[in-house]
Amino acid sequence: MNADRKEQDQIESLISEALGSEPDFRLSPGFTDRLVRKVERHIAIREIFTEFAVKIVVVTGILAILLLCLFLPFLRDGNPFLILLAQNKSLVLSVALVAFFIFFTDQVLLRYVFRKQASHT
Fold this sequence. Notes:
single chain, mainly alpha
């Protein structure tokens, strides 16, 4: 008990000493403005990427459900469309990557660039 009281007194003396003296450094006049801008930019970027991820998951999920509903009944019969897709899988993947890049550019890069330009003006 006595050791706890002694430790608490030491902590209180350190706190009063720290609060009683001036710091050895000065912050620049625009420090808080720059800090707020950095935090806002970080939050905006995180929000943009979160929205993009949600949109990608939703679009991918809808496409997967649609494909399952359309092609699952014809899976045993050897659907000619599925055979065509399987034979041209590199073309299908290329088109999917181009669509993903366009979607990413539209949803993330352009929003970030225009947001950055709006904050400078």
